[in-house]
Amino acid sequence: MRKKYKGLTHLLILLVIVPLFAWKWGVGGTLNRWRENRALQSQIKLLERIDNVPKAATALYGDLLNNGDLLKVISPYVEANGLSVDLYVPYLTETKGSATLRSAQIVLRGGFFPLLKAIDALEYEIPQVSLRSVEFVSYNNLREREMQLRATLIVQQITHRQ
After folding, report:
1. How far is CA 65 from CA 1, 39, 79, 86, in A?
2. How distant is the alpha carbon of residue 57 from its chain centre?
3. How many angstroms separate the first and last alpha carbons of the chain?
4. What is the pTM of this model?
5. Contact at 8 Å (CB) between 101 and 156?
6. The domain 69-160 is classified under which CATH number: 1.10.3720.10, 1.20.120.10, 3.30.420.40, 3.30.70.60?
7. How distant, in Å, are the alpha carbons of 1, 39, 106, 113, 124 from that of 74?
8. Helix (H/G/I), strand (E/B), else coil: 77
9. How confident is the model at residue 85 (pLDDT cuts 50, 70, 90)?
10. pLDDT grade, residue 53 (50/70/90)?
């Protein structure tokens, strides 16, 4: 009978106690440091956002869509990529309290990669507006006898009255 308990004791030590010790002294410390690292990274990102808010806060209140200032802002990207603006239509989407949501439809014409570069600049270099949709259409230009590409962009901006 004693041999049976002795075997169970050894089995209990191997199955329960050894993994607990290995966890505590091996993996547990590493996992705790990884969690601390993740928490610190999220705090750093939050602080970076807080630092960027005052710089961009004045620009966020300016209405770029209603009076066509967006075209002035994107014109360097359009000209640098050899594109042309075929259409610009701003419109009021919604108003609630002091917040106003404006949208604009922009039709750009040019090559595929230049259009992608301009769209990338619009999306990442101009944080005041948000790109909502992009639609590409190719068509035959009979005058120049070539295929051309148009990109129809829908952008939106939220402005606040003070």
Report:
1. 87, 39, 19, 16
2. 18
3. 86
4. 0.58
5. yes
6. 3.30.70.60
7. 87, 38, 11, 16, 12
8. helix
9. very high
10. very low
Answer whether residue 61 shows pLDDT above 50. no
pLDDT digits (tens, 9 = 90+) for 20-48: 877 777 777 777 788 888 888 877 776 66
Mean pLDDT, residues 62-73: 85
Closest CA to 149 of 114, 124, 122, 119: 114
Helix (H) or strand (E) holding 102: strand 99-110
Residue 127 and residue 117 in contact, taking contact as beta carbons nearer than 8 Å: no
Query: Which backbone phi and psi does 140 adopt, to 5 degrees?
Result: -90, 125
